[in-house]
Write a structure and sequence with these properties.
489 residues; RfaE_dom_II; UDP-N-acetylmuramoyl-L-alanine:D-glutamate ligase; alpha/beta; Rossmann fold; elongated; 9-stranded mixed sheet; 5-stranded parallel sheet; 17 helices
């Protein structure tokens, strides 16, 4: 497993059909200032400034999967009420199939009312939550209605996900029936379990994804390896994935081999939704035939991005790719062969990043170069430097150049914070690079005119521009060579 492997998996990503069954909820938020106490009781007062509603629980898994470019269908129970209608409409607006959401007049849609306060312009903090719900097990009639929908939705599906919040929908009869239908259709079943002490209702699934606390509650043991082994044996699973917060994740595979998948240290802002994201990415990756260890690694990356955000926010696949490219960049340094560079830049461009390109020999790096590159970088988000190869410089400047060989020039340039990427080219001009990269900004020194900058037509044809950068007077490689060369008689 490497960052390059994970990037390659995302490059080959395809849309897959995923059915999500479980507890569909509506999360409602009231945001406001909470900088005073009530005069009649020792409690804070929230001056509400705005409210919003968004899908939660299994519905959030659906949004996560949709953000990962999956074709998603819902299977669950909602109330025949305003929150149920709001939830269904929000899912439909995200392109999700809600035909499997059975509306019932016998129980309300589960709603979590979150009260979020802000004081002195600091980060918002959840003050408390009010829940509207009925956790009684669903009836036999409701179970039958869900089975009927399941038979239709699972036809042609690639994966079935069970998202259990212990709200009474995923009863043992329903879970076992859904697993049986999926097995009959050769569809893998992934389970994000509830925080309960009896997991027997998940028996026969493909994989279960509890966190450390949930697994301890269900198994009564503390060692992660022992937890995974017990769950796999007792539930007749093929795989177990335990999420272990800062310790990453543990995968027990179908050969009873244990894999520890590390995570990247990130600033944790809000852990809400991390488990949902793990289930979504793991299911989507396996549907795309990504190897198990790599699938868990992708789930780790996606969950890490999730916890950096306030509230529950779906993580688009492009954001996962961008995070991997950043990790890959940090590990590999700044030099890329052309094809690898084009792929990485395209991912950044899809995130709205602007690309600046410049080129040169940069033979003896001096203050003028540093100032020039810093100024060029200020015109966009990423600076790509096209560096003339040794042979290219010899053709342009003579056999006694370059003074510093290509590898040395690359090493020195790589230490400049202003540069994001370096690509070496062997032609006399960088026109081929410019045509492939199509930078938003083409930077050259002010000793050029717009019309004499190689590639200006290409850049302007796709909406880019040329920037002529002022040079530091008296600073040039030629002047340095003259200064240090022996004087002629």
């Amino acid at each position: 497993m490497s960052h390059a492997d994970l990037i390659n998996h995302l490059d080959r990503w395809a849309t897959k059909r995923v059915v999500v069954a479980g507890d569909f909820m509506l999360d409602r938020y009231a945001y406001g200032n909470a900088d005073r106490l009530a005069p009649d009781a020792p409690v804070p007062v929230l001056a509400v400034q705005r409210t919003e509603s968004m899908p939660g629980g299994a519905a959030n898994v659906c949004l996560d999967l949709a953000a990962l470019q999956c074709d998603v269908a819902c299977l669950g129970l909602i109330g025949d009420d305003e929150p149920g209608e709001t939830l269904s409409m929000a899912l439909q607006n995200a392109g999700i199939d809600t035909s499997g959401l059975v509306a019932s007049g016998e129980r309300p849609t589960t709603v979590k009312h979150n009260i979020v306060g802000l004081a002195q312009h600091r980060h918002p903090q959840k003050m408390f939550r009010l829940d509207t719900e009925d956790k009684a097990p669903i009836t036999a009639e409701q179970t039958t209605a869900l089975f009927e929908q399941a038979e239709l939705l699972l036809e042609g599906a690639d994966v079935l996900c069970l998202e259990d919040y212990n709200k009474g929908v995923l009863t043992e009869p329903l879970c076992q029936g859904l697993i049986a239908i999926a097995q009959k259709k050769d569809i893998p079943v992934f389970v994000d379990p509830a925080a309960i002490n009896d997991y027997r209702k998940y028996r026969g699934a493909t994989c279960i994804t509890p966190n450390r606390t949930e697994a301890q509650l269900a198994t009564g043991v503390e060692d992660p390896h022992a937890m995974a082994e017990k769950l796999k044996a007792e539930l007749e699973l093929t795989h177990v994935v335990l999420t272990l917060d800062k310790s990453g994740a543990l995968l027990l595979d179908d050969q009873d081999k244990t894999h520890t998948v590390p995570t990247v240290a990130r600033s944790v802002y809000d852990v809400t939704g991390a488990g949902d994201m793990v289930l979504a990415m793991l299911a989507a990756a396996r549907a795309n035939d990504v190897p198990w260890v790599d699938s868990v690694a992708l789930a780790n990356v996606a969950a890490g991005l999730e916890v950096e955000k306030s509230g529950v926010v779906p993580i688009p696949i492009d954001e996962v790719l961008l995070a991997l490219l950043t990790l890959h960049h940090d590990k590999l340094g700044k030099v890329r062969p052309p094809e690898a560079l084009y792929r990485e830049l395209e991912a950044y461009r899809e995130q709205g990043k602007s690309i600046v390109f410049t080129n040169g020999c940069f033979d003896i790096l001096h203050a003028g170069h540093v100032a020039y590159l810093r100024a060029a970088a200020a015109h966009g988000d990423l600076l790509v430097v096209g560096l003339n190869s040794d042979e290219s410089i010899k053709r342009l400047k003579g056999e006694d150049r370059p003074v510093n060989h290509e590898a040395d020039r690359v090493m020195v340039l790589s230490e400049l914070q202003s540069i994001d990427y370096i690509v070496v080219f062997g032609e006399d001009t960088p026109i081929n690079l410019i045509e492939a990269i199509k930078p938003d900004v083409l930077a050259k020194g002010a000793d050029y005119t717009r019309e004499t900058v190689v590639g200006y037509e290409v850049v302007e044809a796709h909406g880019g521009r040329v920037e002529l950068i002022d040079l530091v007077e008296g600073r040039s490689t030629t002047n340095i060579i003259r200064k240090i060369s022996p004087a002629e008689d």
